Amino acid sequence: MAEEEDLALKEAYLEGRLLGLNELIGILKDAMDEEGANQTAIFKSLVLHISSEMDSILTELKVAHGASHPVIKEAVAATKAMAKEAAKIPEDQPAEEVTPVVKKNVEIADDLMKNLMALREKTGG
Question: Taking the complete model, does pTM exceed 0.70, yes or no?
Answer without folding.
Answer: yes
